[in-house]
Design a protein that fits this description.
Chain lengths: 253, 430
């Protein structure tokens, strides 16, 4: 019998470009000082709040393999907390995010709903409100292939954004990668306990996301960062999966 | 660099224990002397790694943590303390020369209770330490006290009746079956008798009898108590007999393993490993108990196969392999009549199944395989890899983990369980 889920309307998002760097604490400090003189602290993000993102994949690791090739559809659940939680999918509202990455940019949609409905979503129950949404239809196919939560990230984020969020710059500190011991899609599966810490990132993940054209000052900042950065960073999902699957040498790159 | 600590024999369990993680020896020395002068036991680690080792070893009451350390950041050390179930409740105070608002916010976000900017006045540090310790004292203890085994004791009855004369009379009637329990040992009580209008205490799985009725009923109720208490005592004996029967089955399974298998201790090691994994994954004690029992009994089906086949060394024919792969089903058949073992049956039946459906005997997949089974499967494979077998040599623990991770990638084993094992091995908690 289909479960009716009460979801918020998806945030329609056009294709967005993003760059990601791994910076030392000192370089990140200087970069964020520049950012703060051009952008405002993001209104919706409490500085250094904990973001927990639970990523899904299939038993044959389809999402991870696609992501390594640079093209993937990610299904993930995001929650925000003041204090780092050791349980997830416990909140009154969790954000279900569908993110499609391609070499030409990424599209993200997110839907808010009560975390207690996540098992129903993973069982493939109907969500009438989302019928007809193209990205969500693809998400349902991914779910039908056995997608379930496998890995999580937790970090403290400080976010700055411009008018209408046309440019958004974030710095993620205290990034941790954790396994998620998920064995059933029964309603009792949530709240879910987080598993062991797979790895911690001592450096800072610096991300810039923008639509259309990047502002001049941001382009100049990126040039400077490219000279100072450790390396360009794979997505958190890819790095988390490499740690989970024991591909340690790849995870460090 | 070495950590400094006074002899462990000097540590009184009542003394406040503090670990200082600070790379500047002069600062650490000043702090240490100041705290010791206030009657505290202090251990000092000059690096993040050494500090973490001291925290895990001493389980201190408080950690004073520098942010900038030679090998890692204080934030990372704090997150590790807060991520370990054994140390997560230990309060941490950051001491740092970095005084930006964002530094403080970040430190507190890492799980610290306070953030003190250097240079600080020693009196302020002591005041903050005292404030934190005072707060901790009001919380529950970090580790629950060990409950002693009740195997050799007589059952206990707690009579909560206001009238002293009636209470003495009831206790006297129960004396054949029960000792009178003191209010202090609630966990060990087997029977509680509570008069009407009084709240029953929290006594776990003890039998609770509520006395109700008019004054005229008192004599009749008290007379009935002997019969009811007798029933409660029998129930307790039955529970204990079932446990004894289960223990006997486990002994039998071990004996079979010793007789037929090349590595007789494998079952016990698998059970120990599986329970450690369950604990690392925060499974509750009931689940740990099912996992221990299931791991010990998982191969009991071998008892119904020809012993020369079970003890066979070297290559098996296709037919022989098919027979051997029936052992989970045979084990299930063997145990089916024994109701108390119903909850461990999935472990016996499914410990050779794979998440992608390529295992045996029933080729079940994914969600059909419970987490408890997945844990035993990983523990079984890991322990098997560590010992010599006729067809291959033992491998190191690091190599065993690598091989299990390959099986995760192939879709056979649970990724989170293998990750927990890898963490356990990496951190030396073997």
């Amino acid at each position: 019998m289909p479960t009716t889920l009460h979801v918020t309307q998806p945030e329609t998002t056009e294709r967005r470009l993003e760059r990601r760097f791994l910076l030392t604490e000192e370089v990140a400090r200087m970069a964020m000082r520049t950012v703060s003189s051009h952008l405002s602290l993001a209104r919706d993000d409490r500085p250094y709040q904990w973001s927990t993102t639970v990523y899904c994949d299939t038993y044959d690791w389809r999402a991870y393999q696609d992501a390594e090739r640079g093209e993937s559809l990610q299904l993930r659940f995001r929650e925000y907390h003041r204090i780092r939680p050791d349980r997830v999918l416990a909140a009154a509202r969790t954000w279900i995010e569908l993110k499609e990455d391609t070499p030409n940019g990424s599209v993200k949609e997110r839907f808010g709903m009560a975390a207690k409905h996540v098992p129903a979503l993973l069982r493939g129950d109907d969500i009438p409100q989302l019928d007809g949404d193209a990205l969500f239809s693809r998400g349902k196919k991914f779910i039908a292939r056995g997608a379930r939560p496998v890995v999580a990230t937790q970090y403290n984020r400080i976010a700055y954004s411009g008018a209408q969020d046309r440019v958004r710059i974030t710095a993620d500190h205290n990034l941790m990668y954790l396994a998620v011991p998920w064995a059933t899609n029964a309603d009792t599966a949530v709240p879910a306990r987080l598993g062991p810490v797979l790895a911690q990132e001592p450096n800072v993940i610096f991300e810039i996301k923008w639509f259309e054209e990047m502002p001049d000052w941001a382009a100049r900042l990126l040039e400077w960062i490219e000279e100072s950065a450790h390396d360009r960073r794979q997505s958190k999902f890819v790095v988390a999966m490499r740690h989970l699957l024991g591909l340690g040498s790849k995870a460090a790159s | 660099m070495m950590s400094t600590m006074t002899r462990s024999a000097e540590i009184d369990t009542a003394t406040t224990k503090i670990v200082i993680v600070e790379d500047d020896p002069a600062s650490a020395d000043v702090l240490k002397r100041r705290l010791e002068a206030n009657g505290m036991f202090v251990a000092h680690g000059p690096t993040g790694e050494e500090g973490l080792r001291l925290v895990r070893e001493l389980l201190p009451d408080l950690v004073l943590l520098d942010v900038m350390l030679p090998d890692t950041s204080g934030y990372e050390v704090c997150l590790k303390i807060k991520s370990d179930i054994l140390t997560s409740r230990i309060p941490v105070i950051f001491l740092s020369a970095r005084g930006d608002v964002f530094d403080k916010v970040r430190g507190l976000s890492s799980g610290a209770v306070d953030y003190l900017t250097k240079p600080f006045h020693p009196a302020e540090l002591l005041a903050r330490v005292d404030a934190v310790l005072r707060h901790v004292e009001t919380e529950a203890p970090r580790l629950a006290p060990q409950i002693e085994s009740g195997a050799a004791r007589r059952p206990q009855a707690l009579v909560l009746v206001a009238d002293n004369e009636r209470r003495a009379r009831i206790e006297s009637k129960l004396r054949d079956h029960f000792d009178a329990a003191s209010g202090a040992a609630m966990q060990e009580v087997d029977l509680v008798i509570v008069e009407e209008g009084r709240q029953s205490p929290n006594v776990g799985d003890a039998t609770v009898l509520h006395l109700s009725g008019t004054t005229d009923d008192v004599a009749r109720i008290d007379a009935e108590l002997v019969r009811i208490a007798d029933l409660a005592a029998r129930q307790r004996t039955l529970r204990s007999d079932l446990k004894a029967a289960t223990d006997a089955l486990i002994v039998m399974a071990k004996a079979l393993e010793e007789h037929d298998r090349s590595s007789p201790a494998h079952g016990e090691q698998t059970a120990e490993r599986a329970v450690a994994l369950a604990r690392a994954l925060h499974l509750d004690e009931d689940a740990q108990s099912r996992i221990r029992m299931g791991a010990q009994l998982r191969d009991v089906g071998y008892a119904r196969l020809p012993s020369e086949l079970v003890a066979h060394r070297g290559q098996l024919s296709k037919e022989e392999r098919e027979v051997l792969e029936r052992h989970p089903l045979l084990g299930e058949e063997l145990l089916r009549g024994f109701t108390p073992l119903g909850q461990v049956m999935p472990i016996v039946r499914m410990h050779h199944e794979h998440l992608d459906g390529s295992g045996y005997p029933n080729r079940v997949r994914g969600e059909e395989i419970p987490l408890e089974v997945r844990i035993v499967t990983v523990a079984d494979r890991y322990e098997a890899l560590l010992v010599d077998r006729p067809d291959r040599a033992a491998v190191s623990s690091a190599e065993a983990i690598r091989m299990l991770q390959e099986q995760v990638v192939r879709g056979h084993l649970d990724a989170a369980v293998v990750a927990a094992l890898a963490t356990m091995v990496r951190e030396g908690a073997e």
